[in-house]
Amino acid sequence: MWAVFKKELKTYFLSPIGYITIGVFMLMYSIFFYLTTISYGSLYLGDLYYATARYGLLLMIPLLTMRMFSEERKNGTEQLLLTSPRSVTSIVLGKFFAAVAIILITILFSTIYAIIISFFGNVAIPTLIVTMLGFLLLAMAALSIGMLASSITENQIISAILTIGILVAPWFLVDISDIFSSIDLIDKFLNFATGVISIADVVSLLSITVMCIAITIILIKRRKTVK
Amino acid sequence: MIEVKNVTKRYGSTIAVDDISFDVKDGEVVGFLGPNGAGKSTTMNMITGFIEPSCGQIIVNGNDISKKPKKAKMDIGYMPENVPLYYELTAKEFVTYMAELKMVKRNVRKQQVQEVLKEVGLQEVQNKLIRNLSRGYKQRVSMAGALIGNPDVIILDEPTVGLDPKQITEIRSLIKKLGQKHTVILSTHILSEVSQICERVIIINKGKIIAIDSPENLEKATKEQNSISITVEDPKDNMKNLKEKISEIDNIELKRDNNDGTKQYIITSSPDVDLRKKLFEILPKEEIVIFELKKTETTLEDAFIKIIDKAKGTEPKRKVENKKAQDSSKDVATKEKNISEERKNKENKKNTEKEEKK
After folding, report:
1. pTM above 0.90?
2. Residue B6 parent element (H or E)
């Protein structure tokens, strides 16, 4: 897993994708910092992370996941990976955690504004940490969905659009029926933003992540027999 | 040692590889030969564990590739068709990554990477991005990826496609060198390559093995007649009557009039007769001067075409036929025909042009 993780993380910064992802995050985060914090003179950062999670992740996640397996399949490099003695599980996890590492970097950058705010008043550090944890869990769930989308097509654009579709659809489906709120990822972030760790949210986000990773592994293993 | 036992691969209703079995012994260099779409790459992909056979068993050094993939894959170095590479890495980074994937131990990794880079002749460009390397170098990077970790078995899928003649000879000599220490399986549709490098040839067509033998034996087995190419000066045109003088001759054919008084003939006889001695004895008596006399060898190319044609003729119609493979094999056959016809036409043209000049 470590070998794949290292190489993937390196590749994010060899191609501009890593920088663009972090840049997109900082852009969104800065805009919302002005809109939700400065313009209200507020010390509360929950809204800032909520807005960034809602709109920022929508752009960042496909950027990070669209090439994961699509590119390997298109270039034929999956042959190198899958004929190596490494297991499919370790390859998938390596790629997944490399993307998670980029999210961690963005979270690290996001602390800058908290530090700035702290000059003007007391920032509730525990609340902030819980919010960041929620942001990470949410991003992981979204990443796993993106990764799954990437593993079923060799076209990066299709993979990106699929990911955005899956992430956005629940926003509007909720208007049809409340049932769909359970698949709306962003809904599960609301409690974190107020500094509450809800076991239900943690479990549902983690289970979505684990489920999507497992399906990805199964799909890639299955391709061996149908290919 | 690789054992392939009754392996079949189906895609829906088409059969890509149909119940093939063969062994490759340690230290052997085996060539995989066949027209496009015959199932060469599919077979290689199955041996390396990239795709799973529909049925049958593949055992690499005693480990079943489906049941103990990790152990089996440790012993295999694979250079896939179309040389897939990570273009954003440098040659050295790529080989290092492959070393990590193949679980080369950390303390020997750097040294091994350098050794392999040296072996394939990449030392000078090791810090260049693969994206910027020429085709020949890319091929070598891919080969380095297959060699890293010192695997017992090296599988090369069309390693010389797209290279210039100098690079081809370099890669070939590299493969020959590899054959001294490793078991090598390579696929190709360049026949001269096989007869140069391989100890044994597996000819596959439409997913079926139609011949396994050494290149020399294949050439011999498909030889239907002996033919001698002879250039003579024959002012009295006695060559015509030669068939009456030597009864063993099946046919005499004028191949070319050199327009300097000499003519080239092709004399054919049954494969167990060698006419050369007789020709030397009898021709001077007929006032024919021999300029050149040569036994023409059947090439692996002839053998290949004959074997494939034979397989086509005798094979009973299969219910599920791989149409694609069939079509492409036909293409190859017709292409070969076209090429030889073209050559003849050219020669004729040359001759007529010469005559016109005269």
Report:
1. no
2. strand B2-11
CB contacts, 8 Å: A82 with chain B: 49-50
- Which residue out of A6, A8, A80 would a mutagenesis test of the B interface target, given it has the greatest number of B Cβ atoms within 10 Å? A80
CB-based contact B38:A45 (threshold 8 Å): no
pLDDT per 10-residue tile (average), chain B, 358 residues: 90 88 90 84 91 91 90 92 91 94 92 92 91 89 92 90 82 86 86 82 87 80 77 81 79 82 83 80 83 77 75 51 44 51 58 55
* Distance from C-alpha of A74 to C-alpha of A86, rounded to nearest angstrom: 20
pLDDT of residue B341: 58
Find tokens 């494969």 and name the residue. B271
How do residues A9-29 score in pLDDT, each as one tens digit? 999 999 899 999 999 999 999
Phi (first) and psi of residue A41, to 5 degrees: 60, 35
Q: Under an 8 A CB cutoff, do A6 and B86 touch?
A: no
CB-CB: which of B52, B78, B97 is closest to A83? B78
* Token representation of residue A174: 């909720």
Considering only CA atoms, give the Rg of chain A. Answer: 18
Best mutation target, B10, B61, B97, B105, to test chain A (most A CBs within 10 A): B97
Cβ separation B101–A76 shorter than 8 A = no
Q: Which string of DSSP letters, residue by residue, matches A103-169?
A: HHHHHHHHHHHHHHHHTTS---HHHHHHHHHHHHHHHHHHHHHHHHHHHT-S-HHHHHHHHHHHHHH
List all residues of chain A from 15 to 74 with a beta carbon under 8 Å from chain B: 15
The ipTM, to two decimals, is 0.90
User: DSSP labels for B58-77?
Assistant: EEETTEETTTSHHHHHHTEE
Residue B177 CA to chain centroid, in angstroms? Answer: 18
**Closest Cβ opposite residue B76 in set A81, A83, A86:** A83
φ, ψ of residue B130 in degrees (nearest 5): -60, -35
